[in-house]
Design goal:
The complex is a heterodimer of chains A (about 270) and B (about 140). Helix content of chain A is about 10%, strand content about 25%. Chain A is mainly beta. The longest helix of chain A is centred in the N-terminal third of the chain and has 13 residues, at about 1-15. Chain B contains five helices and six strands, in the order ααβββααβββα. The longest helix of chain B has 18 residues, at about 1-20. The chains are: A mainly beta (about 270), B alpha+beta (about 140).
Chain lengths: ~270, ~140
């Protein structure tokens, strides 16, 4: 019995802190229809250089740093999150291809050349407008500023949508979680860095819910043609932001011709 | 002794910043990270574009001939989030600025901007993300 209690104690010590900021469902801010209100401006989540800016004016020094937590896996256990793994598992016959693509990213990745990252690589939305029958996601990205208008009225996916980077999306509520179902992708984008290619069979499920003032974003990627099993990414905590959306400047890639090797790069 | 240590710390910070150039491409694949350059000249343009902002300047070479230098730096979204807009740099167009950075390996008049000192003495510098803590802030 003592051993049993000791084991339980050790297990508890190993678990990270649960997201205690998660409120009881009754205290979540709700929209007119009774569902949680996900509307708002959320923290910028694409990759930016991990450097700070030191500004010196008349001898007065200030150092401005970036908070990139919205791009990173949550460092604490999140209530309601699905079990996740750090990386997808490809079928054995595709693992070399993934490695090759990752090692030649500056040659093989459309995003390197200002291409669209698509869903889910673009990450969580920067702004959400929640309406009674649809929810609208807005993004800021180096490739441009896409938006997604996602029906929540129970309609099915469109029939034969043209393939696209952001796919065909429909959403529904499962309790207090918005579940966005996305299909109809091009087969040229990657669903993540490190050469995570996919086929036109990719199916993405995004889950979004509130945790106190924050948003939680978690993605599952299915592609039975190339993945050994569906991949659920670690959840991310997205903080609210006071930084309004701004049109992204045009993207003109000029470095490729100057590179002396195929070194890895990272954007999102 | 205290000053020497401080100088060493600044040197380490500068190296860290060099290593932390944006990962859009590996910095060492394009720039010689071991050779810092410092140039003083006339700022001629500031392009606020992705994936890197670009500035151009005219620098009088050793022979007296004017060299047209170009620099790229972090993306516009980064500058925006550390509180710098295009106007903060563009106000110095036509005036003398000092730029520090690393030079392109292909030997062209091109580099990665790590620091710029504007005519009014304002200095903007890419530094290690730990600099805020290390400077006691």
């Amino acid at each position: 019995m003592k051993l049993h209690l000791l084991c339980l104690g050790m297990l508890a010590a190993l678990l990270p802190v649960v997201d205690s900021a998660a409120p009881a469902s009754s205290t979540v801010k709700r929209a007119a229809g009774g569902h949680p209100d996900l509307s708002g401006v959320w923290q910028f989540a694409i990759d930016l250089p991990p450097v700070a800016l030191k500004k010196e004016v008349n001898g007065k020094v200030a150092v401005n740093t970036l908070d990139q937590s919205a791009r990173q896996p949550a460092k604490i256990q999140i209530a309601g999150a699905l079990p996740s793994t750090p990386a997808p598992e490809y079928k054995p016959e595709f693992q070399e291809k993934v490695k090759y693509l990752a090692e030649h990213e500056s040659k093989t990745d459309e995003v390197f050349y200002c291409g669209k990252p698509g869903v889910p690589r673009i990450g969580p939305p920067r702004k959400i407008v929640q309406l009674p029958n649809e929810i609208i996601f807005f993004y800021e990205d180096i490739s441009g500023d896409p938006y997604r208008i996602i029906p929540t009225d129970g309609r099915p996916h469109r029939k034969n949508p043209n393939p696209s980077y952001y796919g065909d999306s429909v959403a529904h509520w499962e309790g207090d979680t918005l579940v966005v179902d996305v299909t109809g992708f091009v087969d040229t984008s990657w669903f993540g860095e490190d050469g995570y290619f996919h086929t036109d069979a990719m199916h993405v499920i995004e889950r979004l819910w509130r945790s106190g003032d924050n948003l939680v974003y978690q993605v599952t990627v299915e592609d039975p043609k190339v993945l050994a099993r569906p991949w659920t990414e670690p959840p991310r905590i997205i903080k609210p932001s006071n930084d309004p959306l701004e049109e992204s400047p045009k993207c003109v890639e000029t470095d490729a011709g100057k590179l002396t090797n195929n070194d890895h790069h990272g954007q999102r | 002794m205290r000053h020497k240590l401080f100088g060493l710390r600044i040197g380490v910070l500068a190296l860290s910043a060099a290593a932390f150039l944006w990962a859009h491409h590996s910095p060492s694949a394009e720039f010689d990270m071991t050779k810092k350059i410092t140039l003083t000249g006339t700022l001629t343009s500031v392009d606020w574009i992705n994936p890197h902002i670009k500035v151009a300047m005219e620098v009088k070479g050793e022979s007296g001939k004017v060299e047209n230098w170009g620099f790229e730096s972090n993306p516009p979204a980064w500058f925006r989030r550390v509180g710098v807009s295009r106007a903060d740099l563009a106000k110095a167009i036509g005036q003398t600025v000092k730029v520090e950075g690393v030079r392109s390996k292909d030997g062209s008049f091109y580099g990665y901007l790590q620091k710029i000192v504007l005519p009014d003495g304002t200095s903007l510098e890419l530094v290690s993300p730990n600099a805020a803590q290390e400077s006691g802030r």
